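Sample 1 of the test manifest.
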Amino acid sequence: MSTPMIDIRNVSKWFGTHKVLDQVTETIDRGQVIVICGPSGSGKSTLLKTLNGLEPFQEGDVVVDGLSLRDAKTDHIKLRQKMGMVFQRFELYPHMKVMDNITIAPTKVRKLNPKAARAKAMQLLERVGIPEQADKYPGNLSGGQQQRVAIARALAMEPQIMLFDEPTSALDPEMIKEVLDVMVDLARSGMTMIVVTHEMGFAREVADEIIFMDEGRIIERGTDKSFFEKPKTDRARDFLNKILI
Amino acid sequence: MGLDGMVIVRNFSFLMQGLVTTFQLAVLAISGGLLLGTLVGMARLSSIRAIYYPATLFVNLMRSLPLILVIFWFYFLVPLVAGRPMGDFLSATIAFVVFEASYFAEIVRAGIQSIPQGQMQAAYSTGFTYGQTMRYVILPQALRNMIPSLLTQSVVVFQDTSLAFVIGLKEFLRSASIVDAREVRSVELYLFVGLVYFLFCFTMSRMSRKLEAERRAA
Ligand SMILES: Nc1ncnc2c1ncn2[C@@H]1O[C@H](COP(=O)(O)OP(=O)(O)OP(=O)(O)O)[C@@H](O)[C@H]1O
Ligand SMILES: [Mg+2]
């Protein structure tokens, strides 16, 4: 019997009186790729941030690799090291070179020696296809390159899970593919991934399950085929019609 | 009555000793004030009430009091707390560090708030603690944005040090007044003091404006 990688149990969250997550339940096994989609404001980003403890929640529980987020004894710092996160606006550190962006957490958090950290960073930059950018500042890179550095930065902590929050929606169309290619590779390598995206091509290619959220609730879930071919709810059908035109 | 510049020349080394004291006090006030101010500025943004409220109270209190009063307070207070006389330089230094910290704190707070939330989340998501996030990610960027305001405030601190005069500290202005008591050459002495303050502060302000322009262009 294997425990799930992430077990989200009846999670509800309010911002003041505004309920932004409503009884969300979901189980993610090791190596699974889950795609989350849904209209703006439906709670997708908030859900991702509750998973690594960036946003507290009031009801329910999230258990990551056996560690409960509600348990006061759980060390959030340790828990976050299991999960890498990639943001819509990259969030690279603008005052550090690409290399330092990638090595800072491994050297300061995992106390890896700088030489080993640099070697590891170089491998990761090769993996995302931009080893030649190591000594530049993020501001001098294209959006697609910055996002690939952000993926390398997250991978440098050797996470078991990767969270992506609309990783391609701030990119020019011609750069989307270079980032998606890296993500597809990552999915095929067996990484557990939760990806908020409206890139349905990506979802078809690698998602084990697609979740549709609306007003803080998961209102539909399915494998790629069942979701795309016969969405059960009107909301999901309208949404798919809008983004698949 | 003609001006007699010789009074400056005759007392030059005595006056320069005063100026050195002024610089020492200013440097300690600025570095100590910035250090304490950074901690208080961070505390002002804390979501923990036990940290936020005392810091906020401190800042609002200090910013509502005249500096000269704070200098007097510490002059009489520090010996009481320490149980022995402290000397005017030490008591002035403490008063300035505490007072200026409240001004630096507000600059630091604004500087931290100028950094997008996502930077903090990115740092946390890689497993950084609050301290590491501040030290490696937020403060380096915030400080860079704050340089013009910090320089402006430093000029103000430099001018403010002349208030230590009131507790008898022999800083630059007091040195001039001591010479004046002996030689009765007020006009020359205070013109000279003014000129030195002006040259230093004007240069600093120009530098700060130039840095600001460069930052805008970058
Ligand atoms: N810090 C906050 N304080 C108050 N309300 C918030 C906060 N962050 C998000 N919200 C609200 O919570 C709801 C869900 O936001 P969230 O960012 O999770 O949506 P989303 O599905 O990611 O949307 P988008 O597609 O626009 O990114 C929205 O109504 C939003 O206004
Ligand atoms: Mg979002």
